[in-house]
Amino acid sequence: MDPIVSQADIVSKKTKLAYSVGHVLNDLSASMWFSYLLVFYHRVVNFSNASAGYLLLIGQIADALATTFVGFESDRTRTGLFHYGRRKTWHLIGVICVLGSFPFCFNICVGCRYSDLWAQFIYYTMFIIIFQFGWSCSQITHLAMINELTHKDGERVALNSYRYAWTVISNIFVYAMASVLLGVHSGNDKTDITPADAHIFRSLTLIVVGIGLLCMIIFHVGLKESELPAEDTEHRLQLSLTSSGRLKRMTWKCFLREKEFYQCALIWMFIRVILNVTQVFLPLYIIDTISTLDRMYVAIAPLCSYVSGLLASFPMRAINKRLGRKITMILGLLFVLASTVLFWCIFQMKPTIPIEATLILGCILLGIGTSTTNICSFSLTSDLIGLNTECGAFVYGIMSFADKLANGVTIAAIQQFNPCTANTTVQCALYYRQILSFIPAGVAVLTVVMTVSLWKANIGGNRHEIVTSDRAKLLPYKSHLNDVEYDERTPLVA
């Protein structure tokens, strides 16, 4: 009997490195997008809170629609442009769009600085839509490559971990550069951000684009995508699994009929709502709720969060193997809940612990929690796709569609009801305190419930048909893509 996993499923170090940096441009730009978009458009460009929220919502809707389109088209593409590879072709299109649009998203409107705000709103909207389309092209195809590079569970977890590690490194880099730029160009106002700081965001954007371009070159030169169409690759895999069986071919309609698809989608969405809401409103929480801190903490606090997240990502493969996806997920959510308690109680702890220390501790716990839960949610989705890579981009596209739409609506609604004006400092401080505490905590509880609902589910593990001489019948089996990691000698059927 042939083994499930061949030696070819062991991903080389060169491929892992090239793959892991393939999302760095997206990660760098997303770090600025979620952390500083509201700050830039409200405090530098002088849009209202609601208008800044609508810009983010427009971007998220464009991203959500683009992910669905790219997911379908990427799966349908055969060999890509000039046989470059179906995933890498779409990835390259995304890179070009991001490089050409993102510098304009965080820069004063070129040629219309003194135009009406509605004209500037349209100007930024155009570049935001192009940026989000490109971002989606790169994200969806990069995720879909995981299941095509290897079918070994441990290798997939490793790729997810390396990918997320570079995500964290990218965020650390952005916050480190932001803290340096904000500190060097502090001027007279060391606690607030004003239109005079526009050049800081322009410089940071150019640095982000430059570093991202370098990583994209490494990715496209160092990673070789299979030249075979997906269907041919899958057919060879099916034949190699067992001489008497075949893998059920899945279409997008088949995935939509699986209950686990919706459960995994909700978990994916909830995790990203926690990550993005905290990332967006942490700088505003520091500026308006803890108004006594130096504005450098707008970068230092998230920096601490992502450093702790990076350290937490290293043992993730071993933890996943020992505890399983679901227990690891719940453990990460407990860290998130602990951080929200600290964000709420930050002033009550002031006599005993300095506000700076409480803030940093809360960010560290948040970083560990979001790093753990993100890696687990990626791995659960990878389990769901399993060996059915023919619809991998579609699955990731729908997951991303749900999270982008949920995040856009949530953040726009928060901004719509934002009471912050020049005369409402007390209300403003309480508002951001509530946002950073209650929303992540509530969503974390929902995620725990959804994870428990998957406790006995065999995600992606009942799609193999064993064909006998008498009849074809379905043989459910414990998928090697779930909590148990099989070695290369494990047969599919004993």
UniProtKB/TrEMBL annotation:
Transmembrane helix in keyword set: yes
SUPFAM superfamilies per UniProt: MFS general substrate transporter
GO cellular component entries: plasma membrane
Any one of the GO BP annotations: carbohydrate transport
Keyword field: Membrane, Transmembrane, Transmembrane helix
Entry keyword annotation includes Transmembrane helix: yes
TM regions (residue ranges): 20-41, 53-72, 92-110, 122-144, 164-184, 204-223, 265-285, 297-315, 327-347, 359-380, 435-455
InterPro entries: MFS_2 (IPR039672), MFS_trans_sf (IPR036259)
Molecular function via GO: symporter activity
Family: Belongs to the major facilitator superfamily.
Protein name as catalogued: Major facilitator superfamily domain-containing protein 12-like
